[in-house]
């Protein structure tokens, strides 16, 4: 099959989440509501942490970074998806698709690493409370966040540059609602089996290893919590950790399902449904999971309103 020339003037067509023309307006309204609620919830969380000095501790600094990532996350994918419900062309330029892929990979990788750092914070706070001021200083937190952003950006840049120099010689129809590496692979007309090992390796470093570290941290945390003599202390520790575990389960479960499977086992329709969870549902639920189950955040909100 003849290879098409690559150019920044070329376009892809995003088939979207659903292909039901008569329901497009309803889907547009629903997605717009989800987007607005997620955006507002995360922005409120960031403002509370900035404005209330009681929340100026490592745990909430990392949480503010998570909320910032979620704001960027949904802003990268959802507006284009919502607009395509009302558009007939549903096109995205070659450069636009490249930028979307890079930004999405950067944010996803940063969130994956940040969630592991948050579990480390809870591990130190519960298992080594006397050493917490030394092990979780402001400098260490900044170093963690900087490493997460830098390593994820480098990883995203490598994958983006490689994928978009491949020959797209098949149809330019992307069976997805945004540009993502797994959804672009079916369009490539050369053997990508070797590159798939690179994707799996990246998934191992950025997804699987942090996830295993989180499980190990919480295994130790729950052992320490079980040994506590104070029932009130047990309740507070379990409440704090369970919130984080809910977020971790949603994000890592869906992310590993997408990026740790060989291309031959991917199903476009299943991938789109799974992508909804880590690109829309998780950013939507994060601020509510961390605020409604957290007395300090709710207290900060009451003080701000009052």
Keywords summarizing the entry:
306 residues; mainly alpha; 3-stranded mixed β-sheet; 10 helices; disordered N terminus
Describe this structure in words.
73% of the residues lie in helices and 3% in strands. With 306 residues, the protein is an all-alpha fold. The radius of gyration is 21 Å and the shape is globular. The termini are far apart. It has a three-stranded mixed beta sheet with strand order 2-1-3. The longest helix is centred in the middle third of the chain and has 34 residues.
Short description:
With 306 residues, the chain is mainly α. It has 10 helices and 3 strands.
**Helix coverage percent of residues?**
over 70%
| H and E string | EHHEHHHEHHHHH
Summarize the biggest pleated sheet. 3 strands, mixed
Structural class: mainly alpha
Tell me the layout of helices and strands.
Elements lengths: L10 E4 L9 H28 L6 H28 L5 E3 H34 L4 H4 L2 H26 L9 E2 L6 H4 L8 H34 L4 H29 L8 H25 L2 H11 L1
Parallel strand pairs: 1-3
Antiparallel strand pairs: 1-2
């Amino acid at each position: 099959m003849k290879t098409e020339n690559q150019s920044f003037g070329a376009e892809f067509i995003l088939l979207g989440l659903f292909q039901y023309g008569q329901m497009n307006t309803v889907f547009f309204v629903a997605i717009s509501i989800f987007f607005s609620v997620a955006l507002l919830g995360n922005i409120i969380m960031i403002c509370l942490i900035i404005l209330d000095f009681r929340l100026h501790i490592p745990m909430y600094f990392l949480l503010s970074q998570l909320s910032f990532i979620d704001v960027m996350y949904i802003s990268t994918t959802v507006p284009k998806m919502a607009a395509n419900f009302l558009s007939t062309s549903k096109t995205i330029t070659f450069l636009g698709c490249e930028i979307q892929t890079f930004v999405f990979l950067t944010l996803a990788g940063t969130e994956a690493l940040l969630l592991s750092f948050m579990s480390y914070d809870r591990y130190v706070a519960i298992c080594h409370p006397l050493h917490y001021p030394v092990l979780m200083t402001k400098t260490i937190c900044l170093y963690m966040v900087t490493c997460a952003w830098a390593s994820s950006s480098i990883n995203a840049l490598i994958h983006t540059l490689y994928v978009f120099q491949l020959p797209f010689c098949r149809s330019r129809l992307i069976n997805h609602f945004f540009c993502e590496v797994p959804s672009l692979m079916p369009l490539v007309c050369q053997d990508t089996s070797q590159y798939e090992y690179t994707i799996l390796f990246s998934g191992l470093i950025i997804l699987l290893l942090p996830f295993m570290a989180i499980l190990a941290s919480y295994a130790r945390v729950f052992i320490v919590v079980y040994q506590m003599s104070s029932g009130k202390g047990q309740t507070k520790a379990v409440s704090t950790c369970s919130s984080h575990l809910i977020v971790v389960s949603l994000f890592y479960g869906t992310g590993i399902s997408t990026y740790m499977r060989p291309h031959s086992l991917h199903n476009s329709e299943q991938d789109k449904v799974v992508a909804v969870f880590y690109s829309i549902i998780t950013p939507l639920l994060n601020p509510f999971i961390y605020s409604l189950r957290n007395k300090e955040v709710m207290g900060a909100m009451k003080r701000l309103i009052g």
